[in-house]
Design goal:
CATH class: Alpha Beta
CATH architecture: 3-Layer(aba) Sandwich
Strand order of the largest sheet: 3-2-1-4-5-7-6
Shape: globular
CATH superfamily: Vaccinia Virus protein VP39
Strand content: 15-25%
Order of helices and strands: HHHEHEHEEHEHHHEE
Number of helices: 9
Length: about 230
C-alpha cells in the first residue's frame, strides 16, 4: 500500500458494509462504549461554528453525522452521500432530509458546489485516500471547509497498547456477536493500523488541494478531527 494509495478493494467494502447495515448503529454505539456520540457532537459543533449554507456528508452511512449537523444548522442544506442504498434508507428513516446514492470517488456534483464537506469514519475505506481528498476539494468552493473525523492510534504508549489489544482481540469477537460478521471487525482493526494519522494525515490533506490543515485528537487519540480549507 502506498502512503496515499489503495485502502481496500471497493467491492469488498460494499459487500462488508451491506451485510452489517441493519445492525451498524448498534455495533458502533456498543463497540465505542458510546464515545461515537461525543465524537460526532464535537464535529458538528465545529461545522456549526463555520456557518456553512450547503454541506455534503460523504460516506454518510446511516446518517449520524449528517443528523448532528442538521440539528445544529437547521436552515442549512445538508446532503448525505453513500454508495449503499440500504444505508441511506436507514438514514432517511432517521431524518436525513436529502440523500444521494453515489461513489465519493466520483461525486455527481459540479465544481465548487458546497461550502463544507464532512466525512466521518469513511475516508479510511476509500479506494484511494488522496484521490478521494482531491475530489472533495473539487466540489468545495474556494476557502470551503473540510472536516474529517477518523479513527487513529493513541500516541501515549500505554494507551496505544491497551487500545490495540481491544482493537485486535476483543472488538472482532464483540462485533461478530452483534452483527454475525467477524471479518468486518478484523478489517476495522487492520484498516486503522494502515491509515495515516496525526501529522502524516495533515501532510496528505495538504498535498490534496487544501491549506491550513489542523488536527484535534479525541479520547486520548482513539479518534481525531482533521480540518482544512480548500485552495
Amino acid at each position: 500500500m502506498t502512503k496515499s494509495g489503495t485502502a481496500t478493494e471497493p467491492t469488498r467494502v460494499r459487500q462488508m458494509f451491506g451485510a452489517i447495515a441493519r445492525r451498524y448503529d448498534l455495533a458502533n454505539h456498543t463497540l465505542s462504549c458510546g464515545s461515537d456520540f461525543y465524537w460526532r457532537k464535537r464535529a458538528a459543533d465545529m461545522v456549526a461554528s463555520w456557518r456553512p449554507g450547503k454541506i455534503v456528508d460523504l460516506a454518510t452511512g446511516t446518517g449520524d453525522l449528517a443528523l448532528a449537523v442538521q440539528r445544529k444548522l437547521p436552515d442549512a442544506e445538508v446532503t448525505g452521500v453513500d454508495f449503499l442504498p440500504e444505508m441511506l434508507e436507514l438514514a432517511q428513516r432517521k431524518g436525513v432530509r436529502k440523500t444521494i446514492v453515489a461513489d465519493a470517488m466520483k461525486l455527481p456534483f459540479p465544481d465548487a458546489s458546497f461550502d463544507c464537506v464532512t466525512i466521518a469514519f469513511g475516508l479510511r475505506n476509500m479506494e484511494n485516500w488522496k484521490d478521494a481528498l482531491v475530489e472533495m476539494s473539487r466540489v468545495l468552493r474556494r476557502d470551503g471547509r473540510l472536516l474529517v473525523l477518523e479513527f487513529s492510534l493513541p500516541t501515549a504508549s500505554i494507551v496505544r497498547t491497551i487500545y490495540r489489544f481491544y482493537l485486535h482481540r476483543c472488538l472482532p469477537l464483540l462485533g461478530s456477536f452483534l452483527t454475525g460478521k467477524k471479518s468486518a471487525y478484523d478489517y476495522l482493526g487492520d484498516s486503522i493500523e494502515e491509515f495515516p494519522s496525526g501529522h502524516a494525515m495533515i501532510d496528505l490533506i495538504e498535498a490534496s488541494g487544501f491549506k491550513h490543515a489542523t488536527l484535534q485528537p479525541l479520547s486520548y487519540g482513539i479518534a481525531t478531527i482533521y480540518t482544512a480549507q480548500s485552495l
